[in-house]
Amino acid sequence: MKLAGRDEFSIIGFLKSRCGSSECLIRGIGDDCAVTTIGPGEVQLITTDLLTEGVHFKREWIGLNALGRKAVTVNVSDLAAMGAEPRFLFLSLAIPDLLTIADLENLLDGFLSACSGYGITLAGGDTCRSASGLTLSVTAYGVAAEAAWVGRDGAEVGDAVCVTGTVGDSALALQQLFSGQTPEEQLLQRHIDPTARVEVGRRLAAGDIPTAMIDISDGLLGDLEHLLSASGVGADLKLDLLPLSSSFRSALTNNASLIDLALAGGEDYELLFTAPPSALPMIDDIAASTGVPIGRIGSIVERHSELKVYGPDGVIPLPAKRGYKHFPETG
């Protein structure tokens, strides 16, 4: 089915015909509420996120299909960070007049494609006209066994600090875009079309491995500080253990200051978690079976919420900005 128009009911009809269903969805798009079921012994996990034109994205840097995919991923990544199985999404759109029917269909195609890839069902939402730019608001629901979800507040002294994948690629691509450069394709894809680590998160949680976990959206150090604060502990990280892609390492050889992007750049959507050292062999098994590298980058220590990063010559100064802030402090 093609999108017939930009009006609310055309969009609803298009999505209803394309969104699929789920055995846990009793009533989806078309009523005032969605009706879902939840199994015995399960808990429901709910997250929401906004993507606003001019704040989170520029349309000249990201295609609408990729934007639709990214809107799904950033929400599913939150579910992955707590070990949840993604179930349902709700999408609300504020649509500017300049967005054509073809544009809108491209956006929704990307959104629904990502839903299919993550096995999550679009169950409802809303649309309205925007007097300025495009805004996507997504709410995602997932489920986990009652005793198998992971928060940020359980890290214990002696735990290993681990991270999936690589860090810094998305931030490096964004910096290059801002400076008028064309990023390498691998870097650009990490920025415009990231991947949520759903299977890794579920496997870790099911194995009762992480003591605390968070996804890296605002930056490695900033998000780790959230975890440390919630757990009442500190951490020592080793700079030489940071997982960096070959593209990032190549750029780093020409500009050593780029390491701050790996430490604090954000939008990696990797999983950052703590676990007892005894669990490291199980973590290696999960990395091997999922094809997602997982590395230890440091340890949890006693200092309350204090974070130190060690370079070859000792403790290094931390970047002044260690995470994205929508409302930065002003004097």
User: Structural class from helices and strands?
Assistant: alpha+beta
Beta strand %:
25-35%
**CATH superfamily heading of the largest domain:** PurM-like C-terminal domain
Count of individual domains: 2
According to DSSP, the number of beta strands is 13
Distance between the first and last residues' Cα:
54 Å
In the CATH hierarchy, the third-tier topology of the largest domain is known as Phosphoribosyl-aminoimidazole Synthetase, Chain A, domain 2
Record the strand order, biggest sheet: 8-10-7-11-9-12-13
> Which CATH architecture of the largest domain would you pick?
Alpha-Beta Complex
Summarize the biggest pleated sheet: 7 strands, mixed
Q: Return the CATH class of the largest domain.
A: Alpha Beta
Shape: globular
Counting DSSP H or I runs of 4 or more residues, the number of helices is: 10
Q: What is the helix content? A: 25-40%
* Computed Rg: 20 Å
What value does the average pLDDT take?
91
How are helices and strands ordered from N to C?
Answer: HEEEHEHEEEHHHEHEHHEHEEE
Task: Looking at this protein, list some descriptive labels.
7-stranded mixed sheet; 4-stranded mixed sheet; 34% helix; 10 helices; single chain; Phosphoribosyl-aminoimidazole Synthetase, Chain A, domain 2; globular; 60s Ribosomal Protein L30, Chain: A; 2 domains; 331 residues; alpha+beta; 13 strands
